[in-house]
Amino acid sequence: MPSIFSKRSAILGAGRHTTVAGVLFSFAVVVAVVTMMVLNALDHVAQKSNVLDDERSRATVSGALQNFVSQFCATLNDYAAWDDAVKNVYATDGMDWTVSNYGEASVNSALFDIAIVIDDDRTPIMAYRDGKPMDGSLQDFVSPALWALFDKVKASGPRDVPEASGFIGTRQGIAVAGVALVREKSGALAAAEGQHRYLIFIRHLDARKIDEISAIYVIGGLKLVAPDFAAPYSVPLDDALGTSLGKLIWISRAPGDIGFADVRGQVVEAICLVGLFFIVLLIIGFMAGRRLKSEEINAREEAHRDRLSGLLNRDGLRVSVDALVATAKQTHHNVLLLYLDLDGFKEVNDSYGHGTGDQLIRAVAAGLRVLIPDGAVLARIGGDEFAIAFASRQADAAALQLSEHILDFLAEPLEIGRRVVVIGASIGIASSAGGSVDREELVRRADLAMYKAKEAGRARMTLYNPAMDTDREERNALELDLRMAIEGGDLTLAYQPLIDAVTTEMVGVEALVRWNRPGHGPVSPEVFIPVAETSGLIEALGLFVLRKACETAKDWPELRISVNVSPGQFRNPAFTDYVRYVLRQTEMEAKRITLEVTEGYMIQNPKRTRQAIEQLKTLGVKIALDDFGSGFSSIGYLRQFGFDRIKIDRSLVMDIQHSDSQREMLKATVALARSLDIPVTAEGIETQEQAATVRQFGCDTLQGFFFGRPMPAEQITERLLDARALKAGGRRINAA
User: Fold this and answer.
1) Which domains does the chain have, with CATH numbers?
2) What's the pTM?
3) Residue 4's pLDDT band (boundaries 50, 70, 90)?
4) Long-range contacts of residues 277-283, Cβ cutoff 8 Å, at least 24 apart
């Protein structure tokens, strides 16, 4: 018979098992509930991700259409604002030119498939479609929206650009159309009212173009449907009269659903595993929580802090701007971001050392702390770059006002130790209205605006404008084409004669690079050379010019050859070796080569410039100072660097016939060079009177349009052959 102790043990054991079972059951219920909550949360995140992706796709499609229209408008402007077009379209015998350049250009063109020229009465003068004359009535082919665009152009005022574009309907489908007044590049037009000619380009939004947009912008299943087609997301196409022509729809990628399906099983397994160790983790977490939390906060703050200035660093700015944008979506405030780049900081570092530069950074940081509004974020994001972000009910006004205060502050001399330095700043401004622009795009826009401010002259502020993106795209395309032109040797050289002031004989030439860009025509060196300098292509371009000039000049033994050298080439320590290699490869005498350098780089890096000049002179080449008198030219430069020649800038020659002060300035400049036994070349000679004056003042060689514009090598050869024949007492007879 069991004792009472055994009964009590049995009862207590049963109670213990019941308690454990209850705890396990409760814990299982908790795990199940937590699992359902997590899965529901993930499902919500997935749906939100789907919505955000579709919204982003809609913005991408809208942007793609805007880019399509912008490119179309640029094409229309190139063809309408064209001097040759004015000469031919308005001429009675210009139809062949009009058909060749407008009508026949519409065949297999990615830019337009219909080209029409009409008069003020809407009467077609020429109408081509896909390179062939159009059949039927133009009025029947296009919708009235086209004539709304035509009326807008016709009613444009003298200050308006006489162009208009938009979507229209045609019998073939939906198209973008543009109407522009045919005029000169300058905008001038001699034709009287009622005798104007208008160019109409039409590009249909066909399946091929839609597929192209879909591929470029990675929008799956993009297609054009009727206006009443039901779709959760779409981009409408309306014409100038507000009529709905159709809309673009696409297949949602549903990234949230895909991601949720991939992780759902793993999440369930993970929660079960977490449940098994929950009690242990809870105890460990409770004991170590406070210590870890404190260390985490300190580490995060340290990781987001710039040690030199004490400000936030780039990571800190990223987190802070994300928070501002998220808050702005709730409060509908504007997030304003300023990007600052100090002007002149590198010169302070180079002149006084990094210690002074560090003190300057700390001084600027302290000043900015005082200027920024309450709640603003201040960060140092690079060596001499700062960023300020804050929320405001105002749009750009608050940022502009703060930028003015910052520019005023930095315009004042700063006392750093015992030194007084003067710097400035270039400021780029971007805004996110109601948090509509995310942090990454906001930073990109501010950075782009800042570089535009630097390009515009520094010490100024610039607001972001969408046109800046187009400029950057065009610049990138120009850079790519220029790289291909350099690698393929598709550049050419023109040569401008250098004339002896006494004998008026040609004694040398200056080699000037020229580029006929495929599909665009000639590009000015003032456009593509700065692109080459900023993109790192200038060295390859410079070596191409030097090698080509040396190869060509072998046929001109009596001429000296001048070649311009950019600061980018001078900065390269191996530049002298490159020049030596080209001279050896082309078998050119070094004494016939003159390398021309401008003074801008000398001001920034006098020591390095002196070293480069000394190394180049060991090769036997001559060094000339170009554009003397246009900037900070001084006698100190002439003595310090030992130039073999100076070239007087054309600005000193331009008005010598009409300005006594200009004459005296030129005379003094030449006298200065002659006193140092430095030969002088005068540039920009356009008249015989200018040539006589600079010759009288002491210039030994002359250059300018009066003696010859830059010309192909063949024309230089022709002039040399004529000069040789004249010296020989005869006249050269050209072989037929």
Assistant:
1) 66-249 (3.30.450), 304-465 (3.30.70.270), 493-727 (3.20.20.450)
2) 0.49
3) very low
4) 278/27
